[in-house]
Amino acid sequence: MMTDLPTIVSIAALLAVAISLVVQQQQARTAQMVDVRERHFELIKLMLDHPELDYNATDRPPSDDRKTAIGMSLWLAHWNTLWHIGKLDEKALRFNLEDLFASSEARQWWHRVSSAWSSKGTRKERRFLAIVSQECEAARTKPSVPLRETVKSGARD
Questions:
Q1: Which has the closest alpha carbon to 84: 136, 36, 43, 34?
Q2: Is the whole model's pTM more than 0.85, yes or no?
Q3: Residues 96, 52, 134: CA angle, nearest 5 degrees
């Protein structure tokens, strides 16, 4: 019976370590989601404060074209982060990209930057970039859709 006690203690210690690791992993995932949601909020806020960064805005003030490119790159980076942490599936990614690439400006931007946009290091990253390029090409064959109308809150005819 005495020889079983060290074994039981060892098993209990191993279980405690395993439980601790699971809890830490859940905490890390929660922290990632909080970070992603904060980044999304900041992107939306940035687009509201600076309409020239919004790739879908109709009434963009004339400005440096780099600002719109920066906005597109920020959104793509945001979707890339969601993709890598498993919070954006292929269907949702394609939906977002269809919206992005409805603009010929976005398609031109992607053709300029696609080869240098990422290091393409992992299989998951290469899949992400392949989907982006596929959606960009698919958008070329679709009829051009005008950008969305600006919604005026509280305005009535």
A1: 36
A2: no
A3: 30
Q: Are 145 and 53 within 8 A, CB to CB?
A: no
Question: Quick check: 96 pLDDT over 90?
Answer: yes
pLDDT of 125 higher than 70 = yes
Domain assignment present for 77: yes
* Displacement of CA 23 from its chain's centroid (Å): 26
- Reading the block at residue 148, the tokens are 């969305």
8 Å CB contact between 148 and 55: no
Angstrom distance (rounded) from CA 28 to CA 49 = 31
* Six token digits for residue 150: 């600006």
Instruction: Please indicate, yes or no, if residue 20 is contained in any of the structural domains.
Output: no
CA–CA distances in Å: residue 153 to residues 43, 56, 96, 156: 20, 18, 24, 9
Parent domain of 137: 31-141
Tell whether 49 is covered by a domain. yes
Tokens linked to 43? 């992107």
* Number of Cβ within a 10 Å radius of residue 81: 16
Q: Residue 153's pLDDT is what?
A: 41
Q: Residue 33 contacts by C-beta under 8 Å, 6 or more apart in sequence?
A: 85, 87
Distances in Å between the Cα of 99 and the Cα atoms of 32, 94, 106, 117 are 25, 9, 10, 19
